[in-house]
Design brief:
single chain, two-stranded parallel sheet, 9 strands
Length: about 210
């Protein structure tokens, strides 16, 4: 019907899928003058392809991705997961069909200088997984009895220069728990360094708050 309507001779790709996600955020002012803030974010989602037109694949942009300046900041953008999968390169994005992501951030004022220079301490946690589909090799498969051991955790500190009409943000983050490592080697915080070693510090520059 669609091909006839568009009068095209090209093969069109059709997808049938369901996608659901939630996003919860909470902000609590602290201190006698409300100059500090505790910010919390929790996100979750699931996507499921039920049509076999494209071998039960989701449209690429409807997958979930995790990592980066507004996600788990200790990982490069879209490079974490799925599950305990250990990618051999950081050049390829890692999509998933299940998402769990949380962040807790303490924000505080430092000094007034051409605006407001603020600081932050934060912890991020989460990961993505895939739902097993017929005839597919599933990387990072979701397993209810195992997913907690595959939660990635990162922490760090940041500076925010608030000019009222826009905000420049610099966050430095380090991996604490890396699910891609073997069972007894997931704790990597003690291996943090500024070099390109096993756990290098990630620099994140952004405009606006991460959430």
């Amino acid at each position: 019907f669609v091909e006839d309507l568009l009068k095209t001779n090209q093969d069109l790709q059709f997808y049938r899928y369901l996608r659901f996600n939630i996003d919860f955020r909470k902000y609590i002012l602290l201190g006698s003058k409300n100059q500090s803030q505790l910010a919390f974010k929790a996100m979750g989602g699931i996507a499921y392809a039920y049509g076999d037109e494209n071998s039960y694949q989701l449209p690429y942009e409807k997958n979930f991705f995790i990592g980066g300046p507004s996600s788990l900041r200790a990982w490069k953008p879209r490079r974490l997961g799925p599950g305990s999968y250990n990618a051999k390169t950081n050049l390829i994005e890692q999509p998933g069909s299940i998402l769990i992501e949380t962040s807790l951030e303490y924000r505080f004022k430092i000094v007034q200088f051409l605006g407001s220079l603020n600081g932050a301490l934060f912890v991020d946690a989460g990961n993505i997984w895939n739902v097993s589909q017929p005839g597919q090799l599933t990387l990072g498969k979701w397993e209810a009895n195992n997913f907690l051991s595959e939660i990635a955790v990162g922490s760090g500190l940041g500076l925010r220069w608030d000019f009222d009409y826009f905000l420049i943000r610099l966050d430095l983050a380090s991996k604490m728990i890396n699910p891609a490592n073997p069972k007894n080697e997931k704790w990597v915080f003690n291996k943090t360094s500024f070099s390109s070693a096993e756990n290098p510090i990630e620099f994140n520059i952004g405009i606006g708050y991460p959430f």
